[in-house]
C-alpha cells in the first residue's frame, strides 16, 4: 500500500512538467486511474511508469490454451552477411511471390530491406534451399531458436506458470529440445526431422551497396512442406476434445500460399471443415502473417476462415494487403509511407469488422476482435459487449514489444524512444475526431458505431537485439490480458 501511494505521489509531480507549456486537449479514458511520472525523466519514462501502474490481469483468466499448427527451428543470421558469403552482389530490389533462386532471394531481400519491412516467402527449389540452409547454419554467429508462429506463441504463453499449453505442429528433435517444459506436445506431432526457416536480419541504417535499411527488421524464407500443407491441423483439432482448452490459437495459414492455387484451395476447405468441429463456445484467435496472393487472402476473408474465428492478430503489411485484396478503405495505397496513419488504420479495422465481423447481432460471423500492431503503436478494435480489459491488453502487448526487442524482461526508458504520434484523427475522412494522447495515461479510446478502439504507443528499442517473433509475443501477451465476456442467451 505504501509503495503504491509513493508511486502515485511521485508520478503526480509530472503534470506541470509535461503540460505547463502545451495546454492540449486530453482524451477521456475508460476506467483508468490517473498517474504522473517524476519530472525530468522524459516521455518514455512517463509511459513505461504508467504501463507498470495501469496494466492488470483480468478477473477471469485462461487456464488452458491450445496452439497450432506451424512450428519449426529458426536459423537467425545477418542477411547482408549471409548473402555476401553466398557470393551474391548487391543490386536493385524486386519483390517475388515465390523464390526460385539465389537471385530471387537477393532481389526480394533488398526490396524489403529498403523499406524496413518484414516479409516471408516460400523457396520452391529444395536443393538450392538446402545449400543456403547449410551455409546459414555454418555462418559465424548463426543462432537456432524456436520458430513458427504457433510455437513462438506457445513459448510466450508458457512464461505464465498458471497456464497449461498444448502445442500441435511438426516438432522435430531440435525443436522439442528448445521448447519450454510447460508445453505439452501430442505424440502424433513428433517427427524425425526438423523443419528449418532462415531468418535474414538487418539493423537500422545498415547498408548493402546503394541500399539502406530505415529500421531494423527481417526477411524470412523456407522450403517447408509440413507446415506448408498444415499437416498437423487434423491432429490439432482431434487433440482438443481431450485437452479441453478455453482458448484456441491458430496460425500457419500463410504457409499454404506457396503451394499453388489448386493445392491451397482444397487444403483450405479441408481446414475449415476441421475447424468447424471446435465447439462454438471456445474462442479461436487467428494469427495472420505475410501473404501476396489476393485470391488466397480473399478465400480466408470471405469464404473460409475469418467468419469462424473470434479474434485476429496482424501487422501493418497484412492489414493493408487485406484491404487491397478485398477492395476496402485505402486499397489504392501501394504501401505505407513511414508510420501508418492512425485514421487510415482505424478505417480498415472498422471495415473488416463491418464486412466480416459480428458488428450486427444477427450476423453469423464470430469475429469480434482485431489486434493490430506496427512498430510505433498498437490498436485493439473490438465489437462492444464481447471483450473486457482491452486497455490492459493493448498496453501489455506494447510493453512486451518494447522489452523483448531490447532483450530485457522490463522496459528500460533509456534504451527506447517514442515514435508514435501524440495527436491523430480517428478516421482519415469526415466525420472524424481529433485525439490527443496523454503519456501518463497512455491509452486513447474512441468509438465508431458499436466498435471501440484502444490505442497505445510502443516505446521502440533503439538497438534491437532480435526482431523475430515480436508479433507473436505481442498477440500472445494481448490474449493473456484479454477477457472474453460471457454472452447471455437471447
From TrEMBL:
Residues 1-20 form the signal peptide. One of its GO terms (cellular component) is endoplasmic reticulum. InterPro entries: ADP_PFK/GK, Ribokinase-like. GO terms for biological process: glucose metabolic process; glycolytic process. Pfam families: ADP_PFK_GK (PF04587). Keywords: Glycolysis, Kinase, Magnesium, Metal-binding, Signal, Transferase. The keyword Repressor does not apply. PROSITE patterns: ADPK (PS51255). It comes from the Eukaryota. This is ADP-dependent glucokinase.
